Amino acid sequence: MTTLPKPHLFRPEDSKPLRWGIFGAGWIAEQMIKTAQKNSQQNFVAVASRTPGRAEAFAKTFSVAHSYDSYEELAARSDIDAIYIATLPSDRLEVALIAINAGKHVLIEKPITMDLGEAEQIYAAAKSKKVLAVEAMWTRFLPHMDIARQLVADGAIGEVELVVSTFCQANLGVPRLFTLGGGNPIIDMGIYPIALSQQFLGDPNEIHGFGKLHPNQIDEETHTFMRFDSGARSNFVLSARTAIPITAAISGPKGSISFGAPWFTSSSVTLNGNGLYEPLATWKDESGLTEHIGLVHQVNAFAQYVEQGLLEAPLYTHQQSLANIKTAITIGSQIGTRFK
Ligand SMILES: NC(=O)c1ccc[n+]([C@@H]2O[C@H](COP(=O)([O-])OP(=O)(O)OC[C@H]3O[C@@H](n4cnc5c(N)ncnc54)[C@H](OP(=O)(O)O)[C@@H]3O)[C@@H](O)[C@H]2O)c1
Fold it and tell me: Of 62, 131, 278, 290, which alpha carbon lies 20 to 30 A from 319's?
């Protein structure tokens, strides 16, 4: 019988609690604080929103002691170690620098920016201030991805030569995706399949994107084929207008590894042989930390990295983050999407 390796987990008890502030009191900030308050030992001290009254309402809902209508005022507090930046990518550089220049470690929502130069400036500023800066590519920190990395490292499928994924979600009703500066689906959503390929294959040397634009010239759907130095290939279908189950698999000469849908959240992982009917073993996340509750893994990882004095996340380095922004922009440019 085939057995799968156990996941290495970022456990709450393995790091001292940080004192957090939050910039931006929107949807993702709510998901993140909900799970972190329940499933970690982190302390949320203050929240700031530029929308008047929103931080106060957020603070009340989540019992956060302090709220501000200005990011600068929050950043000036001396009792904050880290700031979770949950705003939109359009003003990330300005907003991230407020936190970094105040000497705070930063966990910055993905996509870190929509501009390579801006992302480089953020990481350079963080390095010079000696603070940890991590783009919130939370999938890297999930247990099923850890199991897949272990299987690949152990040679369970041989050298990975193909990565195939979908990320199709009916998101036409999400205004930020179709507003200039709000993220564009190819960066906001596309960063996930791009990062998945990167995790197992590195960065592509050949990229071919085909797509469908929205009436306002922002990308709605993208079909991408990428090739790598090793000769490996990757393709993904990304749609922000139509939904299909969000699946992914990687394969090598000895078999494949497939992920449960939606693969970018903590779901399941199956090791398959090469036969038509040959799943060998499956690990399913039964911890209760599935869906967006799994955001807590990156929070626990971040706290450990701060304690270790790291300036970047070994599981998602600055270089990897920058390379993925570059790939997303390349694909978007190939299909003629409007970024500005
Ligand atoms: N990890 C994930 O699974 C996941 C899921 C969803 C989103 N995200 C990422 O998280 C980020 C925020 O997404 P969200 O869904 O939370 O967005 P949201 O609720 O629409 O907005 C988040 C915050 O961004 C600022 N904002 C929104 N619209 C703005 C505008 N028109 N002009 C200026 N500021 C504006 C506001 O900050 P103030 O409160 O300061 O006014 C708002 O609270 C995005 O980059 C997104 O890609 C990640």
Answer: 290
